[in-house]
Amino acid sequence: MKKIGKAVYSNRIAIISISSVLILFLLYNIFSVNIVQALSKYGSRGEEVRTIQTKLKRWGYYKGNVDGIYGSQTLEAVKYFQRKNGLVVDGIAGKNTLEAMGIFNSSGNSNTSSSNSSDLDLLSRLVYGEARGEPYEGQVAVAAVVLNRVKSSSFPNTIAGVIYQKGAFDVVSDGQINLTPNSTARKAAQDALNGWDPTYGSIYYFNPATATNKWIWSRPHVVTIGRHRFCK
């Protein structure tokens, strides 16, 4: 009888163990499916798609309606964004693409540091020093000018090189570049890094109310945002 009792007990333990493994397996599959479904792709609908469309439209990648429907235009816009940002070009707004867009980070939270952290930090400090108090679009515009200079053969080819170029920015000379940027300046820098350029390719800007350099007034005017005049 004792042997039978032990056998029954062992069988029960085995059944419980198998059941536990099956439950864990099912939970893993359920959560895995949910994770996959949370990433947008062709045919997806919802608020995440709307957010993707809004950002891509702001940055000039997307020309369609912000309707929350992941159609062919959104697909091509995502591919365009992926190509420009060195991502796998598959048209799927997966983890890496959403991180690059600043929608969320690897923990699923709001992300503001998907680009190289040192470049983002330095660009944020430049924006804060040069444009705090300006409208948000004007802060993005200042960051965009730095990035446009990086692309130009007439300037250094790194963000640090452009910002620290002798005489380029007053905030470097007066030490404001060392101030701690606020969240708005960081967000503006990130938006510029992601491709938003409200200046349409401008490589200079100045405040007409305080500018004394006659040469800067000779530059072709592109757009005025807040107190700054942007030009080429």
List key phrases describing it:
single chain; 232 residues; mainly alpha; three-stranded antiparallel β-sheet; 10 helices; 3 strands; 53% helix
Can you give me a brief rundown of this structure?
With 232 residues, the chain is mainly alpha-helical.
What report would you give on this structure?
The protein has 232 residues and is mainly α. It is 53% helix and 5% strand. It contains ten helices and three strands; from the N terminus they run αααααααααβαββ. It has helices spanning 2-37, 47-58, 72-84, 95-100, 117-131, 136-151, 159-163, 170-173, 183-193, 214-217, and strands at residues 204-206, 221-225, 228-231. Strands 1-3-2 form a three-stranded antiparallel beta sheet, with helices on one face. Helix 5 (117-131) crosses helix 6 (136-151) and helix 5 packs across helix 9 (183-193).
